[in-house]
Amino acid sequence: MTLIDTRDIRATAREQIERRAQGGEIRHLYAGLYTDDLTTAPEVIIRNELFAICAALAPLAVISHRTALELAPTTEGNVFLTGPYRRTVRLYGHQLTIAQGESALPSDVRIPTPLGDTHRSSDARALLENLQRMTSPAAESRSLGRAAVEAWLEDFLKREGEQRLQQLRAQALAVSGELQFLREFGVLDKCIGVLLG
């Protein structure tokens, strides 16, 4: 299966792709975005090609908050990102919700895709983001909250050990200064202190 992004190509090439779509050779997914997969349900394509979709439709945003830790949409299809603008992109049962904030930091994870690179918050940044206070219902909230972060840290400690957890704490301290997440770092620091104590 191939995804085709026509937004940054010459008008003649774009017209040719649009003619192919009208002829039934390829299928339209979103403005300027097509696929040659004519059989798979569009919502399945979106889920399977999530990183490429983010690269194409939110090129300056970073996959953040709970999506950065869960690496999947919520049960309602929400995908959370942070970038230099606020925007919502709805497509086939999914919703890319972009909050205004800091785009990718040097410490964030670059994810190459056929439609360009996208970025995911580093574990340190994602943990801080998931400690932000939110008012949305828990099931669809942008942030997972303290209990989920504590569970994530406990699994990380079992898997990676104390030294890696200390390194994660140091990374979170650095990121908290860049993003002004000082309150969130205080909570994270206490959670890690309890685990190490």
Distance between the termini: 50 Å
Q: How would a textbook summarize the main sheet?
A: 6 strands, mixed
Number of helices: 8
Shape: elongated
Decide which structural class fits the backbone.
Answer: alpha+beta
| Strand order in space, largest sheet | 6-7-5-4-9-8
The residue fraction in helices comes out at 40-55%
CA gyration radius, whole angstroms: 19 Å
Strand content: 15-25%
Report the average pLDDT across residues: 91
Number of strands: 9
Which spans have pLDDT < 50 for at least 5 consecutive residues?
none
Q: What series of H and E elements makes up the topology? A: EHEEHHEHEEEEEHHHH
Please tell me about this protein's structure:
The chain is α+β, with helices and mostly antiparallel strands and 197 residues long. It has a domain of 76 residues. Helices cover 45% and strands 20% of the residues. The chain has a six-stranded mixed beta sheet with strand order 6-7-5-4-9-8. α6 crosses α8 and α7 runs antiparallel to α8. The chain is elongated. The model has no long low-confidence stretch (mean pLDDT 91).
